[in-house]
Design goal:
Layout lengths: L12 H35 L9 E5 L7 H11 L9 H9 L4 E9 L3 E8 L2 E5 L3 E4 L4 E2 L12 E3 L5 H14 L4 E6 L5 E5 L4 E5 L3 H16 L6 E5 L7 E4 L4 E3 L6
Parallel strand pairs: 1-3, 4-7, 7-8, 10-11
Antiparallel strand pairs: 2-3, 4-5, 5-6, 8-9, 9-10, 11-12, 12-13
Helix pairs in contact: 2-3
Length: 258
Amino acid sequence: MQAILTMDGNTGNGLDKHDHSAHANSLLGGLMAVLVTTVIIAGSLWMMKPATLPIKQVHIEGEFLRLDTNRMQELVSDKVRGGFFNINVTAIRNTLMALPWVKEVSVHRIWPDGLRVVVNEQTAVVRWNETGLLNDQGHYFAPEKDSFPDGLPMLEGPDDSQKLLLERFNLLKQLYGLSVVHLRLNERRAWQFELDSGLRVVLGRKYFESRIDRFMHMVIKNMGEKLSQAKEIDMRYTNGFAVRWKQRAIENIESGVN
């Protein structure tokens, strides 16, 4: 048999040894990869088992006037069906979000066996159409009527006009300082409101802000004590207004209603 002499004087048998070593290293690397993958999979399966680090503590946090903490605790506990790693936090959040007085919920895992549930309660600022309430962002919610706070102003309007009416209500209250107890937008898109004194103010379909400006300057400032005898002020006139007195006929201050 002949041996092949390489340029460095070694025979070809050295190449065979090198190939065997590379093959062994490759095989070892493959086995290590399989081992690591197996460990990862086994660990993942272990972590996802409900019996692994079961949830033992549930803490519900927040400031509540209308919500019942014990009731929320029961609802959350009923949804705790897994361990620390595989518990369905979305299901817990959705369960609490279904309560009408709940505005927002966040659920956090607390190592090694706890849940922290933070609940924000709705704050009602006005009633809406005798059916529900609006929060300060104009979002509608409808809890049981016996849970409605007392003394809330009433907003009344077509569907999907909640935010517009709340904006106008805030304008009347904050910019003009009017104590509005009832603001209404009818199907013809005409506006009117009632003050806490019982005075009703008719604005019509157009020129909302300019008619409010005229009401403030022509009625509030000029009528004085007479205003307490008025039942209704109609601002749908070009440069004036009409007064309906509590025990007298209508007095037209200016013609040209529109």
